[in-house]
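G., the chain you wanted modeled:
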Amino acid sequence: MLLIVRPGAVAGHFLQNSGGDLFGRRTPGPQTVAHTARRPAFPGSGWILACAALAWLAAPTRAEPPVATREFLRADPARSLQFPADHRPHAGFRTEWWYYTGELDDGAGRRFGFQFTIFKVEREPNPQGDFRNDRVFYMLHFAVTDPGAGRLHQTERIQRNFPGLAGWSREQNELYITNNTLQISDGAHKIRARAADIGVELDLDLRSRLGPRLQGERGYSRKGFTPDAASHYYSVIDLVGEARLQINGVERRLRARAWMDHEFASNALAPDQIGWDWFHLNLADGRRLMLFRVRSDTARDFTAGALFSADGAVRSLAPNELRFTPGRRWNSPHSGGAYPVEWNLEAAGCRIATRAWLDDQEMRPALSRLEYYEGAIDATVNCQGIETTGGGYMELTGYSRKMSGRI
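Predicted structure as tokens:
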């Protein structure tokens, strides 16, 4: 997952589509996605408080010094990630996300894909980690792919960093946006997603045997050719467990397998970087792959990847070991984007052919308007003549509009 949100753009889009003012009075215009309170905050909080929170973010705060006097923190190759501390939010970085994707199945051929991602965005540097800072907000993207019904269920939440709305709860050891929560403790990852606006609930109880795997150079992951184009990045690649999925009142108990990425950074895309293609794959032989390229419209693309053995040992992949060749495209009738839904990839001497479960897995968040493709995929793999299969997720951005300048 490589998404780096430009805070002003998100806040601006949200305010343009809020349908109300600071006091919750209805005004003409499009409506927001519904919000439901996770725990008692204020009567009738919902989307009205979310609207007010983003309005506060857009307005100047008299007590704070000018932006020019402070700087965001940058990824540092000398930094050593420590756990469990680095599972938690990192104050002072412009953008951070906790990203889960995976497959749910009933053991009888019915399967679902899911994405659950929480973003933390600081509109101005917040090095002290003030939990009431009105320059910090959280965003949730939640989606379930149902190939049996040929449908992607998706929703979005945006809330100010404030007790009862969104943030990190030390008492409950959880990250939350209203009633959507994430807990990480002793190898256990618990997710509770509630999206009444699309009729979907998801509970995930996952465990990892291997624990966090550091990406890049000991957790310092380059995203471009300049020194500041980098993030701190680790993954949990072997999450397995149980799920409870409810769609429109129909409940299922399912097996779950998932991949988690956690990144924090302050860099943005260079003007020539138009988007990226990112893949994670679980192979039937126990190995796992992470691959990405950041596409440029004037210079060479930046590529990177990692190969994980069955026991979790990681080998970073050099650019000359990677090749990304798009195949069949799906033309989105919603955004106009032409997304490659089939790919031929090469990595670490393996030839990989991927295909999306469902063509239309385009995320179209109503508030941030950061449309992108987040989709479950199957893969056939040939490594030095040995055939195997696999599956995972791919993320594709910049196919409807350039991402540089928007993030």
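Helices lie at 7-16, 46-58.

Shout if anything looks off.
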